[in-house]
């Protein structure tokens, strides 16, 4: 890689300085309920493609409105991509909501459909909820994978310095491009 382009950098848990306070779990749960209700309406109203529409909505929703799904917008919370301190994009939304997408995919299984869905909600949803409650910054596994955090909407997320090194790391697309050029 050339010196003028930022490279891949592994950020360990102890290197990342906590910048944003933990968002209210009540607000996050309310926002998730609204998003699940919207997904349910999509499921019911779009016929045979309903489950796929609901799945796509749930995984892409957080990237819709600069880091806010309609539920997050209603409850005043947003998803921030931590390395750049900007609102989450669709890529970040898909990564952070992959566990919930897996629950939906389990519900699509032929023979086990509803039982697999309920099992996924209990196991995957339980792990995600426990992780969110226990983590000091409210990060769940999806947030760790996507390097995101849900913050209170009143926190000025775009006025902070992106990283302590002074360089803004490239997003995934640019990082992959940089690897191929070197």
Task: Describe it.
The protein is mainly alpha-helical and 182 residues long. Helix content is 51%, strand content 7%. It is built from eight helices and three strands; from the N terminus they run H-H-H-E-E-H-H-H-H-E-H. Strands 2-1-3 form a three-stranded antiparallel beta sheet. A hairpin with a 4-residue loop joins strand 1 and strand 2 (86-87). Helix 5 (98-107) runs antiparallel to helix 6. The radius of gyration is 18 Å and the shape is globular. The N and C termini lie close together (5 Å). The model is unreliable at 1-5 and 159-168 (pLDDT under 50).
Rg from alpha-carbon coordinates:
18 Å
Tally of domains = 1
- Provide the residue-averaged pLDDT: 79
Distance between the termini: 5 Å
Strands in their spatial order, largest beta sheet = 2-1-3
Q: By helix and strand content, what is the structural category?
A: mainly alpha
**Describe the biggest sheet?**
3 strands, antiparallel
The helix/strand series, from N terminus to C terminus, equals HHHEEHHHHEH
What portion of residues belong to β-strands? 5-15%
Stretches where pLDDT is under 50 for at least 5 consecutive residues are: 1-5, 159-168
Number of helical elements: 8
* Structure summary, number of beta strands: 3
Helix content range of the residues, please?
A: 40-55%
Give the CA-based shape. Answer: globular
């Amino acid at each position: 890689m050339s010196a003028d382009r930022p490279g891949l950098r592994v950020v360990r848990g102890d290197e990342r300085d906590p910048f944003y306070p933990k968002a209210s779990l009540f607000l996050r749960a309310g926002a998730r309920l609204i998003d699940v209700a919207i997904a349910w309406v999509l499921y019911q109203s779009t016929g045979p493609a309903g489950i796929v529409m609901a799945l796509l909505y749930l995984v892409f929703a957080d990237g819709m409105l600069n880091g806010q799904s309609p539920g997050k917008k209603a409850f005043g919370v947003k998803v921030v991509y931590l390395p750049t301190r900007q609102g989450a994009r669709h890529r970040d939304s898909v990564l952070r909501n992959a566990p919930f997408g897996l629950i939906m995919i389990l519900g699509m299984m032929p023979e086990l459909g509803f039982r697999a869905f309920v099992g996924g909600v209990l196991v995957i949803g339980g792990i995600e909820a426990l992780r969110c409650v226990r983590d000091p910054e409210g990060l769940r596994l999806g947030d760790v994978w996507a390097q995101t955090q849900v913050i209170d909407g009143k926190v000025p997320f775009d006025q902070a310095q992106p990283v302590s090194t002074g360089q803004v790391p490239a997003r995934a697309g640019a990082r992959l491009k940089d690897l191929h050029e070197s």
